[in-house]
Task: structure prediction
Amino acid sequence: MSVEHNTREIEEGVVTDLRERMTYGSYLGLETLLDSQHPRSRPEHHDELLFIIQHQTTELWLKLVLHELDDARRLLAADDLGGALKRIARVKHIQEVLTQQWSVLATLTPTEYAQFRGALASASGFQSAQYRQVEFALGNKHARMLSLFESSPAEHAALEAELHRPSLYDEFLRLLARAGHAVPASLLERDVTQAHVYTEDLVPVFQRIYQGAGRPDGGHWREYEACEELVDLEDNFQFWRFRHLRTVTRTIGEKRGTGGSSGVGFLRRALELTFFPELYEVRSRIEE
Result:
């Protein structure tokens, strides 16, 4: 193969005079975005940039997750289940990216991290307002978390608004009730500022949906599909939590977190939390 002309010419018609035009960089705000990484270690440690970019990209993805969950709830409230499932499907793909990102941070060895960890001072992922908003949106409400953000009025206001908004599960259960399913009234009228807790009377509702979807006529198929999408969403969230736990374990062991948490012990306890407990319990009730 000849490499005499191993170049690609600019095609005729490609805009090259970009003066006073919208450009790739200006549309994406790259000047600001790429100037937002400011290592604090002195002398600057090579691997701190990895640590910063890892967490900044996570926050960008969390922003999109919130955007999608906001609209999924709006669509559920409007009885547009198909539209809501489209939004949830996108969230699931974002979750896969977020989980895979941990493999990049896992290339940071304990020795490398120890050389700049002190520069974080009290900064910690525990303080991520967007992560807390995602947990609230999925139903893991905890009003005391708001105290973490009293020094940031905008973040505090966003999290407080999420606290008072019905979760994704709340909106799904309300949709099921409007569709004629016997969702307990206590769940339809509950205080949405509280975390959802397991409700035994809800399990038969899902049992009928799951067993109906197994019939030849495909009864309740759409509701069944939505249930499985929510299970996927929770499974993905747990995979993310687990990869977080394992990455922290291999990087700092049993040290306390920079924000004052117990570190891996705190992360391990998070694995016990569930958003949609009845959707897991119903699996033990399916009749053969």
In short: The chain has 13 helices and no strands. The first helix runs from residue 24 to 28. The chain has a mean pLDDT of 93. The CA atoms of residues 211 and 287 lie 8 Å apart.
